[in-house]
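User: Okay, second chain of the day. Same drill as before: sequence in, structure tokens out.
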Amino acid sequence: MDAEYFVSINEVAKRLNVPAHTLRYWEKQFPVAIRPTTGAGGRRYYRGETVAKLETIKSLLYDRGMTIAGVKKLIHDGELPKSPDEFVVKPTKQSQPKQNTTATQQMPADITDEVETVISLLNTAREILSSV
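Assistant: Same drill. Structure tokens below.
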């Protein structure tokens, strides 16, 4: 799309299949990325590059399931892709596998002894109750 070509908010809404009020909401949520030109009477007109950003934002929100906050972070970090197809999920620290440790391995020795005593008492209570 030609970057110098201006499109009205209604045309963009039809192209993206979203209501015009959604586009106005996104303008407030993503003011750095989405800045329409206003014409006579306050009508909004979008440049081609802004329409491309809107297509990417819509895809990230609707197709990829990202949150508004997630898209804001991409914009803030300068990582908003030029097209939805360029978006790649980066692994996070949370997605790394955790070491297999039990709760007692992470506790100090005196607490571990107390926990083991409580477990022993609970097992004894279970045996007594199951025999009743």
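The chain has two domains: 6-90, 101-132.

User: Thanks, on to the next one.
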